[in-house]
Amino acid sequence: MQSAVWVNFSDCRKSLLLFLSLVVSFPASFAQVPPAQTSSVKKSQPAQPKLTATQERGLRLLKAAEGEATGLAPDMRAFVLWRASYAYVPVDPKKAESLTLDAYLATQGIEDATDSDRCRASGSDGDIKSWIQERVLSEMIKKDRIAGVEGMLPQATEPVRSNITTELVQHFTSKKDLAHAQGLLAQLAETNHYPFFAAAELLNAMGPDRSADRMSIFSQALSNFEQHGSSGFDTRGDFGMFIERTWNHVPPAVVLEAIDKLLEEAKSKESHERLSMATDKGSVSLNSQYEMRIFQLLPVLEDLDKDKAESLLRDNAAMRERLTQFPKGMQSFSADGTMYSYGIGDDDSGGASQAAAKDQARQKEALFFEINRRMSAVERESEKDPQLAINDALMLPMQTQNASPRAVALLMVARNAEKRKPSVAKAALDEIMKFEEQLSPEQAKREDELPKIYFELGYPDDAKKALKVMLKAAEKLYEHDNDADDPNKSFKGTWPSADLWRKCVQEASKISSAYAEEITGEIPDPEIAASVKVAYAASLLGQTSGLAILVSDCRKNGSSYDFSQ
Fold first, then answer.
1. Cβ neighbours of residue 370 closer than 8 Å, sequence gap 6 or more
2. Which has the closest alpha carbon to 410: 423, 424, 429, 426?
3. pTM for this structure?
4. Whose CA is closest to 162, among 220, 118, 123, 109?
5. Which residues touch 441 (CB under 8 Å, ≥6 apart)?
6. pLDDT single digits (tens) 364-403
């Protein structure tokens, strides 16, 4: 039985608003104005622009959704209020800010996530309490409201405190307040998720005159690695990446010690990891974490200790060949356009079955790269010859496991040709509609831009037809989310069905408000309907800035997380 958590939001909100009014919202310039001049300052404020009839309708709808939120469970209430805060931005920024605080306070009523629930484990994408808190505080950092963040951070969950402290390290690094950044980084020195990327940024921002501080940060990172090790290979933010980015700013002996320890750890692990990377200049496949580390760190070793580098390559002709082709190692694949395939195998049976499994994995990988290569070619062609791009897109497979390469490529052509050759863009969309109903709901949801582009091209009837296909997909996704044998255990507001209904309503509002309200009224789940209503109101109010929404599906045998605009 779940225990109830009661929070006096009224008292909390009053205290928090008072605090923020003093340290966040109170303009410094206003404080310096003598009392006699106060009225003239107020008169100089620009008048709020008059709302259009559409915006007034959106505002009424938004206020209704706020009222409905009070009766929702704490997680959905916080989610709806957070979404609503963005909707207010174009018409009432102060209300938007106030509602953001309400959403943050509402998260206090959500039970803390536990690691026993894989779908909502603490700090994971499924931990909606942490997810909302982190985005509220992160947005405040972007607006340079640092005092407010520091005042609210103690009430956040532990994962949020760690992640936001990391963002603050990066914030103060960018502001050249390196001492402040270093002090915050020290707070994370012994945590499980040390921010190696932020530490590398800070170290590299320090000049030669701060060699002692550089050395201190490098030693701190090494100590954290020795204490916690690595959970896997991550080119974006692990200790190996840290060495790659900082090795030329500290003494060679320290770097060589760090490389030895990283290679030793990788060699000691039973690793079934496989990483493949491809660019237009070629591809590389690495079949264990040890191979990945060698490929990553050999370029550094060749600068610092050629004998050791040669020793490692002596018995590894394949690695020598890879590094001859890509002498910068992992850095050779840092540019845009690189394709990655990463996986972990678990077949330890050996013999013919293991060989067959590996051969099958290689075939799937080769097919993946080939399809992506052809899709990239279609994208390039769509800029020069969109009709040829359509012809080549039609040669792609209609379906793979989770997507339709043909539909994705045709949509890409339509998007690129929309302004320059509208007739060709429509032709690409028409080709998708010929087979759209044959796609699975999972595949169809990836074509959610179809109604939008039709409408922008000036074909509202075709947009409505495409919307009907999307709505059928949303209904089927909802059935799958509610599968009695294996339901989606993620937070309901992030279900794939909720996301697709949201997009359908936003596009329907461009055709007619009656149609959008009809769709909203037919959503069978009242909680999802409440969150969709906020999205509809946001579109009426003219909120066009991209708000990344989590889309999650977590079941018995796996989970997937994605972001949607």
1. none
2. 429
3. 0.79
4. 123
5. 473, 474, 476, 477, 480, 496
6. 777 888 888 899 899 999 988 999 999 999 999 998 877 8
